[in-house]
Amino acid sequence: DSRSIAVVGGDGIGPEVTAQGRRILALIAEKRSLPITLTDGDYGIEAYEKRGRMWPESTRIAMAEADAVLFGAIGGTSYPLPPKLHKTDSLLAVRRSLDVFVNLRPVKTSPALYEASSLKPRVLEGVDLIIVRELLGGIYFGEPRGVETLPGGERRGVNTHIYTSSQIQRVARAAFDIARTRKGRVCSVAKENVMEAGQLWREEVQAIHDARYPDVELSHMLVDHCAMQLVRAPAQFDVLLTDNLFGDILSDSAAMVTGSLGMLPSASLGVVREDGRRGALYEPVHGSAPDIAGKDLANPIGSILSVAMMLRFSLGMPKEADLVERAVSDALESGARTADIAIGRKYISTVEMGDAVASKL
Ligand code: NAI
Ligand code: MG
């Protein structure tokens, strides 16, 4: 039976890097005779200008019907969107409609890229961690929200940080399940010294651990301390479990451990539905990078490694996932560098990096 993948590039460098991810997926499907159908969909500012809808119905349907979505990035400097469309068509709306509540962001160093990182080689040695970020709760979704004018003219911006116990429990279970396939250690990150929702976070994570995962080693860390430890000694971490906002911030910091934001893949996974299917969205961690868009300069490795995660988590093809990851390390070891990781060396374009990975596959 054939598996269907929706491919949605989005804005800025999104389409550029996604084209390379798509091509690697198509190549491995061809080489290993995997039955995969790719459907392309538009999304973002161009779709809005051409069709009056940032997230057109045809793309919405393709994403809903697919076994997995390969996504690029969204966002730009000029977004003349009516606020109503933001509510229905934003990336937050996409995540909610696919019901993807957990975001996995692996961070692994490779000696070939030590010089691209701002950290010292002895700090980079052996870093292999994964950030497990809650994706449908917290301050990104909490109500009330908005900017209001108070009597007297003072203006007030409001966002609300809310977590329910079931939201915490399901992402905690995901983190513990992943830890069992790795080194068996979870560090839960919150800010329970000042936030009540953080206290609940810590209690619920501890309770799930004690009841169902006593074999996993659990520790707790305050988020500010974690931000420090991530650059001081990142190799100490195995699984970092955290909320929506903290996970967003910590993963950009963790990215610099690997040398560039352009290197990092992610998988966002949903609840398993009655028919056994679950929402699955694979995208690089970075955004649309307007500063380098349209120049064939972007690093496509985040998208290519997202394809590897898709092969592993949605398509049940771990061997093929390994092959893609190995092709990326081989390309890096043989000296292929996009501008972001070149450090004064000669660099190649987005498409040429795709060529380099494809030739190793
Ligand atoms: P960004 O991640 O787009 O870029 C940050 C910096 O990293 C820039 O200097 C950029 O050139 C560089 N960079 C990012 N990806 C790269 C790659 N693949 N290769 C080489 N260099 C790369 O974050 P920024 O600039 O804060 O946001 C730009 C837009 O992207 C905003 O509209 C933001 O809302 C949106 N965004 C979208 C995300 C998504 O679609 N998931 C995630 C983050 C931001
Ligand atoms: Mg971010």
TrEMBL record:
One of the record's GO molecular function terms: NAD binding
Annotated InterPro entries: IsoCit/isopropylmalate_DH_CS, IsoPropMal-DH-like_dom, Isopropylmalate_DH
Cofactor binding annotation: Binds 1 Mg(2+) or Mn(2+) ion per subunit.
Named cofactor requirement(s): Mn(2+); Mg(2+)
Annotated site (Important for catalysis): Y140, K191
Pfam families: Iso_dh
Every Isopropylmalate dehydrogenase-like domain range: 4-357
Subunit and interaction comment: Homodimer.
Protein family according to the UniProt entry: Belongs to the isocitrate and isopropylmalate dehydrogenases family. LeuB type 1 subfamily.
Protein name listed in UniProt: 3-isopropylmalate dehydrogenase
Organism field: Bradyrhizobium centrolobii
Gene name tied to this protein: leuB
